[in-house]
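Re: beginner question about structure tokens

> Can someone show what the tokenized structure looks like for a real chain? I only ever see the sequence side.

Sure, here's an example I had lying around. Input first:
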Amino acid sequence: MNTHYDFIVIGAGSAGCVLANRLSESGQYSVLVLEAGPSDRTPLVSTPAAFACFMFSKKYNWAYNATSDPALRHGQPVFVPRGKTLGGSSSVNAMLYVRGQKEDYDHWASLGNQGWGYQDLLPYFKKAESNERGSCDYHGDSGPLHVSDPQPQFPVMSTFIQASLEAGFPFNPDFNGETQEGVGFYQCTIKAGQRCGAARAYLHPAMARKNLTVLTGALVKKIIIQDHQAVAVTFLHQGQTHTIHANQEILLSGGAINSPQLLMLSGIGDQAHLAQHGIPCLHHLPGVGQNLQEHVDACVLVKSRKKDGVTTSFSGLMKMVPEVVKYIRRKEGKLSSPVSEAGGFLKSRDDLDRPDIQLHMLPALFDDSGRDLKLMSQHGYACHVCVLRPKSSGSVTLHSTDPTAAPVIDFNFFSHDEDKQVLIDGIRQLRKILAAPAFDDYRAEELSPGTDAESDEAIFEQIKQRIGLVFHPVGTCKMGHDDMAVVDSELKVHGIRNLRVVDASIMPTLISGNTNAPTIAIAEKAADLICNPVSIRDTDPEIATA
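And the corresponding structure tokens:
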């Protein structure tokens, strides 16, 4: 380990892995990557269906809890899993490859973030992607990230598709194509039956390079700021504290929870909040940690008369033994599945111009991030509904000055009434699907919300006790030019030289879908901004005259 590197990347998650690869590929720069978690070299990461195991792990998962809300989940806190290993959350997620809607990115551009519209980001989505369907106007076929059509393993998924058609919803073969609306099977970041997260796609192929150093178990305590310039980082590694200097830039890629936490620990944030913890404010940026957005989620749980799904009962676990053997031998079968194989993007009301809810179908009674094993011991199926573009926003703030302590995560769900109504209307749309004839052979008792819940008030009273999230936090270091913006359109922290934030926290607003693919595209663009800075200065008059 040297004392100086050209670039220091904090966090080897989805964005950090991309940066490590792209900044080191020319051989021109020395790059240090610091990851607090362990290596991802474990079958739990590479086996797609094993992702549920990470909900019980604190080795590979930060396993945060949000602040409890007495009105939700009977006052129990919402569980907030975040990846803590090489690849970050791309090593522990459900691997669905979704980009969101064109309008999401055009909205970012309309806020003054030039160069971040859909047509600006599409080349980076395609650059990252190696889609097994081949290249076209919307897809690439030669990028590091393998995107595939996994072979469906659970019959209830095809039933869900058929029921959706019977209920009048369209089939969509490609959620990332010309239009997102409809139901269908998800494409996934899976290659030959194994997870292809950011670490496998970007980091591991680059780790043999002499100019790239990757340290696991390295917890960054502080970014050192001198005269409004980021110059070094201090971190813990194997029981010792180290300080490493950056010749060019420090790139913060800790994610929407950890990135604002580290900025605040380093003296960048709201002056009054930092003062509460005795942290000298080196630069007042009140937006740090604010604007937290997440896909709030509720579900319909139905007992099944068939027994072809997943249960945690003894007999259910015994049925999985042959699947384990099949997977070990051929990387096939149920363990090669993302489990949530099918879903859709629908309008909660017919008068809308584009989808505002997303469905995730599951062949199990899946609730509380899969941690309710007693519920899952019964035969059944679940379909989850999330609000794609929530109006409510929360915050990430400090609990203490201890970098190992979890920050305070307050999602502030349903502070905007529209989110509540969208979720209720989404449950109604989902019930149309689950009531269709295709489910007649499956359908038994509806456990939640329950058949007695028919009015808006009754539906919400039930679903609010099972409120969860889809693990898509964004926005806490948002890109923009207003008083609450943290980074500019080059992802440089306002008022601090040589420091950028590159991860989902820079999203000004939450995109209409899963956030892993957009995070990778953000990092691809960021690497281009760093390695080819003239290109954006030629197209952005504001930057050119800065």
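Each token stands for a local structural state, so reading them left to right follows the chain. The CA atoms of residues 283 and 369 lie 38 Å apart.
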